[in-house]
Structures are given as C-alpha cells and as structure tokens.
Write a structure and sequence with these properties.
Elements (H helix, E strand, L loop, with lengths): L1 H35 L17 H12 L5 H13 L11 H7 L2 E3 L4 E3 L1 H13 L9 H11 L13 H15 L9 H7 L4 E2 L2 E2 L12 E3 L4 E3 L1 H11 L10 H12 L11 E2 L1
Parallel strand pairs: 5-7
Antiparallel strand pairs: 1-2, 3-4, 5-6
EC number: 2.8.5.2
Enzyme class: transferase
Family: Belongs to the SoxA family.
C-alpha cells in the first residue's frame, strides 16, 4: 500500500512538473520581455516587429487596410481544401479545430504532428501525390485552415513523458548556438529582440507562430513556418534542414507553446 501511495504521489509530481515546464518557460520569457520591451502588451506579440516599431506599424496597417497581398492566396487555399478532398479527412474536417489541435504529440508514433504534416498526409491519401512543405499549395491551404480559427488562442499541450522529451529537444535546438556566426535562435529572438540587425528589427519569440503561414515581400509569395525556419538557419550560416523533419517539428512544438494564450490572426504579412 505504502509503495502504491508513493508511486501515485511521484506520478502526480511527474505530471505536474511536466505541465509546469511550459508555463514556467513562457512566464520567464514574458518577464524578460516586460523588462526589455516594457510598452508591448502581451496580446500585441501576435504582431511581431510591428508591436515594437511605430513606423513600420503604420506601413503594416496601410497594407492590411488595402488589399493585403495574401488575400487571394488564402482564398485560393480554401478552394483547394475542398478541391483536393481534404474536408474528407477526419483530422481536417473541422478546420478551426484542426488549427487549435496542432501541433500535438502523437503517443502512438511518439512524434510531434504539425498541421502541415497532417495536410500533407491527407493530400497524399486523397490525390496520391506528395505536397511541397514550404510554399505553394500547402502554405495557402494551411493559411486558410488557420483563418477559420482566427481569434482563438494557441493552446499547445505537453502532457506526457514523450511529449515532454520532444518539447525539451525543440527548446534545446532553439537555444543552441550553431553555424558560422555561432548564434542561437534565442540570441536574436529573445536576448536581442527589439534591436536592429542591419535593416531589420528583431521580433520577440512570443507570438511568432500566430500568423503563419504568411506572405513576405522578400519571398513575393506565401510560406510556412518551416520555410521561415529554413531562412533563419541560412542567415545563421548553419546547416540547412528539411521542412517537416523531426528536429523542426520538435522545435515547432516548443515554439508554438511559447505563444500559448495568444490569438491566431489573419494578418499574415511581413516584409
Ligand atoms: C542573426 C539573427 C537571427 C537569428 C540567429 C535567427 N533569426 Fe529568425 N529572424 C531574423 C530576422 C532579421 C527576421 C525578420 C524580422 C523579424 O520578424 O524578426 C526573423 C524572422 C523570424 C521569424 C518570423 C517572425 C514573424 O513575425 O514573422 C521566425 C518565426 C523566426 N525568425 C524564427 C527563427 C528561428 C526558429 C531561429 C533559429 C533556428 C531564428 N529565427 C534565428 C533574424 C534571426
């Protein structure tokens, strides 16, 4: 009996430390940003650099007030969602619910499942072909699906030992220095957020995943979160990784969890 009680007690402890990690990691980040960017409200982190710099915010708002360059693409994504039969796949049947559910840790495969991963799988089932992971159809379809969940809050759950391990791996990747410049993601998006790097202001990691997929002027097209990961790795002169590889999926799990409580937005534009 005593043994049972101790086992139950330590299990309880394990679960609560598992759950506490995401919340305490995020709290530490929120406190850090309160210190370095005291005028930014939590909800405004969805706007990335535009939450920080008033001049670029004005341009951003003008773009949103006109016909934003992603509008047509997102609409097309909605048509493609139907045309390719993705509404017939049960994980995507309710698009708003699908956006909120992903990314999640799948206990059966012990892998992080991303929204784009699920779209790719359904597309393959329905059409019998592979879908690119970074741009084109996948970015349009994923953006349209996310648009159905606008105003709902990101709520990534890390609830098992396996999920915890994936989360920790993703977090470690984010904080590890790499590449020719020996920098980590955190060097730019945590410690130096709000500062200038050449012509760019560095965005804070909080809110990073609320508006993806997005349209970037630099790309002149839409791209997924992993397309952006790839771009930042290149900027760091680090070894490139393929979109949807396990490393990126684990990082996304951590990265999205740090936006927990922030609203998904349809303002999918960055310069
Ligand atoms: C040398 C600095 C630097 C490093 C290191 C870096 N980035 Fe970036 N990143 C940028 C710049 C500059 C931008 C464009 C301006 C902005 O939004 O911050 C950007 C943009 C982004 C965005 C889009 C933000 C938005 O609001 O649309 C994401 C997501 C991102 N980076 C993730 C990462 C990840 C993940 C890593 C590590 C693999 C990383 N970055 C490493 C400089 C960096």
């Amino acid at each position: 009996m005593k043994k049972l009680i101790t086992t139950v007690a330590s299990l309880g402890l394990l679960v609560s430390t598992v759950l506490a990690n995401v919340a305490s990691d995020q709290k530490a980040l929120i406190n850090h940003f309160k210190t370095i960017l005291p005028s930014v409200e939590f909800a405004d982190y969805t706007n990335g650099v535009y939450a920080i710099d008033q001049n670029s915010r004005k341009q951003f708002e003008e773009i949103l007030d006109g016909i934003p360059p992603y509008e047509e693409a997102v609409e097309k994504g909605g048509k493609e969602y139907l045309k390719f039969g993705l509404s017939k796949c049960s994980p995507l049947k309710d698009p708003a619910a699908a956006r909120i559910k992903h990314p999640y840790f799948d206990e059966a495969t012990q892998q992080v499942v991303t929204l784009e991963g699920t779209i790719k799988k359904c597309y393959q089932q329905q059409i019998g072909k592979k879908l690119d992971s970074k741009k084109g159809k996948i970015a349009r379809i994923s953006a349209w699906i996310s648009d159905q969940a606008v105003g709902q809050k990101i709520n990534v759950k890390v609830e098992s030992a396996g999920a915890q391990e994936a989360y920790e791996k993703g977090k470690t990747f984010f904080y590890t220095k790499r590449g020719q410049f020996n920098m980590s993601c955190a060097d730019c998006h945590v410690y130096n957020a709000g500062k200038k790097a050449r012509a760019d202001i560095l965005s804070p990691v909080l809110g990073h995943t609320t508006h993806l997929p997005m349209y970037r002027t630099k790309w002149a097209s839409m791209g997924t979160l992993h397309r952006r990961y790839d771009g930042c790795l290149k900027n760091m002169r680090a070894k490139p990784l393929k979109a949807q590889t396990e490393t990126f999926r684990n990082m996304e799990f951590f990265h999205q969890a740090m936006s927990n409580g922030l609203e998904i937005t349809a303002d999918r534009y960055r310069k």
